[in-house]
Amino acid sequence: MTSLSDALPITRVPRTGLPAQAVVVGDPGRAAAVADLLTDAKEVSYHREYRTFTGTWQGTPVVVASHGVGAPGAILLFQELAEAGVRTILRLGTAGAIRPGIRDGDLVIADAAVRDDGVTQQLIPAEYPAFSAPEAVLALQRAARAADAPYHRGVVWTRAAFQPGFLPLPGEAYAAAGIAAIEMELSALYVFASTHGLTAGGALVVDGANADELVDKEATGGYDPHRDVVADGVDRGARITLDALRLLASTER
């Protein structure tokens, strides 16, 4: 573990010396599971929801770090990873499907995101887009094809609130527009990365339908992300994301 004097204040990651390539996830437990895939994995910090590992994937040095639930906390991790030397960040997350034909366990590669994240509106005008680096999309797509994995590309909806409240939602309009899935952090990554000269992308494993008005609870039993089909998709998505990082690193070299 890094000493406090050598660590950044929010996440406690080392101030310098991190690899340039990172995978970020929400769950600290998922960070540990992805790190288990690495060679010479080492936990370098664990503070609050922020758990960080380093190691190598097929010869490429990488960081694996968790950011918790929600964009306001996640963007703090992105900021401190960048301060510590990370230049490429791919988010491996889960999402609810919106577009018909996307099945549980499938991967959604996000070309862009709707900025309903609750934080970037306070950082830059709402008209500024949240978009993936094209090379990240292509690397993720190439890795998914190599793994013969079911995947979809499209725009995703990043929304701060997980559960519905008392306000009307634009879910039907987004569904009609072909939005692929809904999640909670990706637009913050895209805005932060594009405004700070970083490369960013996102791969989301579908763990059910949108948990709001699109769910037929009588038919589905409600939202349940803890199923084998989801766990298998996350494991497959982790390997795909790491492969995409390797591809991006080799291109940069």
Automatic annotation (TrEMBL):
Transmembrane segments: none annotated. Its EC number is 2.4.2.3. Pfam families: PNP_UDP_1. Gene3D superfamilies: Nucleoside phosphorylase domain. InterPro entries: Nucleoside_phosphorylase_d (IPR000845), Nucleoside_phosphorylase_sf (IPR035994). Residues 22-245 form the Nucleoside phosphorylase domain. It catalyses: uridine + phosphate = alpha-D-ribose 1-phosphate + uracil. It is an enzyme of class 2 (transferase). This is Uridine phosphorylase.
